[in-house]
Design goal:
By secondary structure, the chain is of the alpha+beta class. The protein has 2 domains: 3-92, Winged helix-like DNA-binding domain superfamily/Winged helix DNA-binding domain (Arc Repressor Mutant, subunit A); 94-247, Beta-Lactamase. Helix content is 40%, strand content 19%. It is built from 8 helices and 8 strands, in the order αααββααβββααβββα. The chain has helices at residues 21-31, 42-49, 53-65, 81-93, 96-111, 154-162, 168-176, 219-239, and strands at 69-71, 77-79, 114-121, 124-131, 147-149, 179-181, 190-198, 204-213. A 6-stranded antiparallel β-sheet has the order 5-4-3-8-7-6, sandwiched between helices. Strands 1-2 form a two-stranded antiparallel sheet. The longest helix is centred in the C-terminal third of the chain and has 21 residues, at 219-239. The radius of gyration is 22 Å and the shape is elongated. The N and C termini lie far apart (54 Å).
């Protein structure tokens, strides 16, 4: 028997979903460093991954040799330069539209309303991507590329709050996460549900918006939209390298 209760024979090479188990274990070690956990010891890696310490040590040998991990003088570990290099390659090849459009289509299908992504550009917010509602009566007055000054609209307030704006009103928005505007301050007769999207280093990417005729934004409809937009914003945040845990409301 090996130390820590493992047999000397390697564990099965095929993962439960048809993958390679050893590779998945190695990736689990890398994944343990997510969300700001910059340096971890062997015991912490074992707790985070559920792997035996002896298994981790074997995998670390390869990860260290290939530059995915670094061992510090105190015996703890951190991610290596190879991870950073791959991240830069990913950033250079990443197409935001490819990540955002499926989310907007899903939101439109789930809610029946127009779904958009707005981003900040200096003192303005810009409609970067938009999927119109299939309803014949819809929010049709805006289009991709439309630009508005940062003001008191729900979208502007969400973008400002999650961009670090100070003040009690922004603290309240950060606690609620999702803002509802019935009617919208910007377009008469239109209502909106707004939720932030977070990216790498917890920096805001922009805001997802569901918009449509105010008459359709009943209490029941808004409750459904709130759940849908939180769900999709969390999924997009995860894909963009942010922590979806920051999108958990602490105040309704």
């Amino acid at each position: 028997m090996e130390a820590y209760g493992e047999t000397s024979r390697p564990q099965a090479e095929v993962g439960g979903q048809g993958g390679v188990a050893a590779l998945e274990r190695g990736l689990a070690i890398l994944g343990a460093f997510a969300h700001g956990r910059a340096v971890l010891g062997l015991a912490e890696l074992a707790t985070a991954t559920g792997l035996y310490k002896s298994t981790i040590l074997r995998l670390l040998t390869s990860l260290l040799r290939l530059g995915y991990m670094q061992r510090l003088d105190d015996g703890r570990y951190r991610l290596g330069a190879t991870v950073f290099h791959l991240g830069r390659i990913y950033q250079g090849s990443f197409n935001l539209r490819e990540a955002v459009e499926p989310v907007l289509r899903s939101l439109m299908t789930r809610t029946g309303e127009t779904a958009s992504l707005y981003v900040r550009d200096g003192d303005n917010e810009v409609c970067l991507h938009r999927v119109p509602s299939a309803n014949p009566v819809r929010d049709a007055g805006l289009a991709e590329g439309d630009r508005f000054p940062i003001d008191g609209s729900a979208c502007s307030q969400v973008i400002s709050a999650f961009g670090g704006a100070a003040g009690a009103e922004y603290d309240a928005i950060r606690r609620k996460v999702v803002m509802v505007a019935r009617p919208s301050r910007r377009v008469p007769g239109v209502a909106a549900v707004v939720c932030p999207v977070i990216g790498v280093d917890q920096k805001p990417v922009g805001a997802l918006i569901l918009s449509g005729p105010e008459a359709r934004f009943t209490d029941a409809a808004v409750a459904m939209m709130r759940d849908a937009i939180l769900d999709e914003a969390s999924a997009l945040t995860r894909r963009l390298g942010g922590n979806p845990g920051s999108l958990v409301p602490t105040q309704v």
